[in-house]
């Protein structure tokens, strides 16, 4: 007897719903990463014509900006890749939730430092 035959109908539908929610959230990391990337690009472009000393202290610094800016597209790739393994697990939904949380933190840091 396979696992799907052993589960009652309610458990099957709950598992299917949980898996669907996991994949929807995992795929939502893509537009979230695009938004963070575009916001970071806009923040840098807004400082392009700035020559004052006051502008030198804006932003998170070159090293951290590189991590925040170029790390945003990496998060959905890793989230989707790990979701292939964890989507059917009971707590597999935590993977895309953590990915979305990382992107939200990234956005907040960029918004506060520029």
From TrEMBL:
Keywords: Membrane, Transmembrane, Transmembrane helix. The keyword Membrane applies. The chain crosses the membrane at residues 21-43, 63-84, 91-112. This is Uncharacterized protein. It comes from [Mycobacterium] fortunisiensis. The lineage of its organism: Bacteria, Bacillati, Actinomycetota, Actinomycetes, Mycobacteriales.
């Amino acid at each position: 007897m396979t696992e799907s035959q052993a589960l009652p109908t309610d458990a099957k539908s709950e598992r299917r719903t949980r898996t669907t929610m996991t994949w929807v959230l995992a795929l939502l990391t893509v537009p979230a990463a695009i938004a963070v990337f575009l916001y970071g690009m806009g923040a840098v472009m807004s400082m392009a014509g700035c020559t004052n000393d006051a502008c030198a202290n804006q932003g998170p610094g070159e090293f951290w900006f590189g991590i925040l800016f170029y790390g945003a597209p990496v998060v959905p790739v890793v989230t989707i890749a790990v979701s292939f393994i964890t989507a059917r697990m009971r707590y597999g939904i935590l993977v895309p939730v953590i990915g979305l949380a990382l992107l939200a933190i990234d956005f907040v840091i960029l918004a506060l430092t520029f």
